[in-house]
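Table 4 source record.
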Amino acid sequence: MTRSKVGANHAEALTDAVLTASRLLVAVSARSLAAVEETITLPQFRMLVILDSRGAMRLSSLAELLDVNPSTATRMVDRLVATEMVARQPNPATRREVIVELTEEGTHVVRGVTRRRRAAISRIVAKMSEDERRGLVEALTAFTKAGGEPAVTSADLGWI
């Protein structure tokens, strides 16, 4: 087999492994969200996480980070405003733009869901060997860096 075919097969196997792992992580996330009193979707939770990790921002920037149309982001914000998880206000600099920020309730939800997700993931990771865990840390760190996701560490989660 030529080197390019081996590389292509390896890339395909790696893609399959990441897709399978992402399915597991989505399931863990969905179970963690099930305990939230107000029903929110995974995309809505993603919005809350972005606001928690990056702070208040323009609605247009939030839509871009979520990779959705501004109208979709507006509907998501409308639902989250109704549950008092986010607040919106006119941008004082332009007044035509809207700034969205996480409320105390939204922060409480993000932290509770994250705490439950962390516990579930810890139980899964505990079933792996030390060598497997070490390799996973390196691989996932490179993967999230390539995807542009800000890193989360235990030190960042002092509120847990």
